[in-house]
Amino acid sequence: MKITTQLRGVALGLFLLGIGNVISVYLNAVGSDSTVVNQAGLVRGGTQRLVKLEMAAQGNDRLIQALDKKVNGLINGDQDLGLPPAKDPDFLSKLKQVESSWKILKETIKRVRQEPNDRSVLLSQSEDYFKLTDETVLAAEKYSQAKVQQLRAIQITILGMTIAILATILLLTRQIVSTLQSSIGVIATSSTQIASTVEQQERTISLRASAVSQTTTTMNELGVSSMQSAEQAEASAASSHQTLSLAEDGAKAVQQTIGAMLTLKDKVGAIAEQILDLSEQTGQIKKIADLVSDLAGHTNLLAINIAVEAARANDQGKGFGIIAAEVCKLVEQSKRSSEKINSLVAEIQAAMNSTVAVTDEGTNTVLEGIKLSQETGATFVGVMDAISNVSLNSQQILLSAKQQAIAAQQIVETMNVINQDVKETASGIREVRLSIQQLHQAAQDLSAIV
Q1: Pairwise CA distance, residues 169 & 12, whole Å
Q2: Fewest 10 Å CB contacts: which of 35, 65, 323, 443?
């Protein structure tokens, strides 16, 4: 089925739908108004029936409740009764009067049930209430008629608008068909030209993809070589760093040796000083031993005198003679001890003199060792500086190699991205070519159905 036929069918459907909508609104409005008029009439008739029953002393509370519901529904609306809220000012005013009179009438009914003699009052009020409800029914009918007239005017307006819309749709349909036919021809021509151009671009992109793929392979090989150079430079830098570390350790060891020799020199000097102090103390010991020897000679002489005096004293001096003999023994022992001390002191002084000589030679040897260690340390410093320069150069070479490797890797990644983009572009061009073919086919199909 052609588009023009479908558009005409749609226009006809819209026309029928508009008419149906108008009819539906009209019927709903008329039905609602008829319900209002009917319920107002039921209030009027139900009130008269209630008054008759009350006059016959046959009260009906259920009827009163039903009338209450209807009066309230006419004013405020009631879904059960199908009543909408009252909106017309005249009709609403009448309903308010009916509601007020209905309350008075219910009070009168209650009073009549207690005092039957007041039935004449109830009858009079019911007549007035009947006139009021009759006027309310007439007001409802008048409001319904006015609403029907308004709906008729709306129906005519909607019908005119629908006809105008239908005419516009038909006019637009003709214009659309004309425009589509000319556009279809342009699309068909353009799609043919675009298809030819896309085929040429597809061949060009394929050639570029092949060239980019070869370049990517070459850059991958260059990247591998750069990485190998970087690894070799890194190994050289590591070796230089290790050698520098060993040289630094050697320099530290030399410094430690120099420090130890200086410490040894200080200790040897301290030992020499202590030996000199000891030599002086040994001389003092010899002096003391000589003093003890002199003291023993004097004591021996004194003991001899005591023995002589004790011999003169005969028996009274025997005790002193014994003491003198013991003192002589002690003096003899002191002399022998002094002689031994002097002999030991002489030996100690000889040993100390030898030790002082050896200490002087050790001090000289330590000084020579310190001088050699300092020279060795200076040599290590020079070696360390040379190795440091080599390590620095190796690090610079390593940094340059790494930068070259990174640059080569970035180039490889860029070429991979370009290669991927070229492939995606080629794929996109193939899809565009297929889309153009589909567009050309769609133009032909559209030309057939317009």
Answers
A1: 10
A2: 65
